[in-house]
Amino acid sequence: MKFRLKALGLHLSASACALSLILGALYLGWYYWPGWALTEVTHVVVVMVGVDVVVGPLLTFVIARAGKPRRELVRDIAMIVAVQLCALIYGTVSLWNGRPLYYAYSETVLQLVQAYDIDAQELADGRRLNPGFAPHWYSRPRWIWAPLPQDPSLSQKIVASTIQGGDDVISMPQYFKPWDQGLPALRAHLKKVDDVAYFYGSQKKRLKERIRAAGLPTDQANSMPLTGRGHPLLAVFDPASAKIKAIISER
Questions:
Q1: Whole-model pTM above 0.85?
Q2: How far is it, in rounded angstroms, from Cα 79 to Cα 132?
Q3: How far apart are CA 247 and CA 110, in angstroms?
Q4: Neighbours of 176 (CB within 10 A)
Q5: Any residues with CB less than 8 A from the CB of 121 and at least 6 apart, and which?
Q6: Which long-range contacts (CB under 8 A, 24 or more apart) does 210-219 make?
Q7: Mean pLDDT across the chain
Q8: Tens digit of pLDDT for each residue in 83-120?
Q9: CA distances (Å), 29 to each of 25, 35, 167, 176, in order?
Q10: Bridge partners of residue 244, in order along the sequence
Q11: What strands lie across the sheet with 109-114, from one edge to the other?
């Protein structure tokens, strides 16, 4: 039993360290608030934790015996580690491909843009036509304005594509502009919490309680939804300066 516990402890420590380094780097680099809350990646992390920190070490505990031939023990542990590595690689690639790249204001809402929202053609167009806003592998999340193009035909084409489930302007870096340039338009679309879409009934009640707890007013037109693939959040602004004062979850 002592040998098994030692094997379990060593395997658990190594697995936990590797997973912590990967998740920590991804969180600090890309998924920090509000990125993690807006992405539906919990199931990926659960798989990674389940295989790498729970199942793998437990299997080592089961197969490890002091009297077992060393060659056989090494072979069995190597097989367990191989399965763990597959789960780790799968999870890391999924999180990397879905990493937050932009928080975009477009029309009447703030939206999270993840790496896989921008396809190869849009990426190439962005680097050719608007290189200052096109993402690279090392790009960190940033706040941008994504207005529809001024050309009516292009604008209508993008709107039609969005309605049919195709690409939206927030996935087209060639149209991105500095965040500050979009603040006048953003300010004009701020609403009171009670008038904000995406939230209903008790959700708005909880939001107002948390806004008040943050020392911010709930009776002013100072709010806008921030959406992604996860549950939406509420961004609360200073109406005068259009600076974000808080990003609040109703959950």
A1: yes
A2: 46
A3: 11
A4: 25
A5: none
A6: 210/248, 210/249, 210/250, 211/236, 211/246, 211/248, 214/245, 214/246, 214/248, 216/245, 216/246, 218/192, 218/193, 219/192
A7: 93
A8: 999 999 999 999 999 999 999 999 889 999 999 999 99
A9: 6, 10, 26, 22
A10: 237
A11: 177-178, 142-145, 100-106, 109-114, 223-227, 233-238, 243-248
Q: What does the block give as tokens for 22?
A: 């990967």
**Residue 12 structure tokens:** 């658990």
Per-residue pLDDT of 124-182, as tens digits, reads 999 999 999 999 999 999 999 999 998 899 999 998 888 887 789 999 999 999 999 99
Q: How confident is the model at residue 4 (pLDDT cuts 50, 70, 90)?
A: confident
Instruction: State what percent of residues in the chain have pLDDT above 90.
Output: 78
User: What pLDDT shows up at residue 249?
Assistant: 94
Cα gap 122→126, rounded to integer Å: 6
Residue with the two structure tokens 């701020």: 190
Structure tokens at 97: 């491909």
Q: How far apart are the first and last CA of the chain?
A: 44
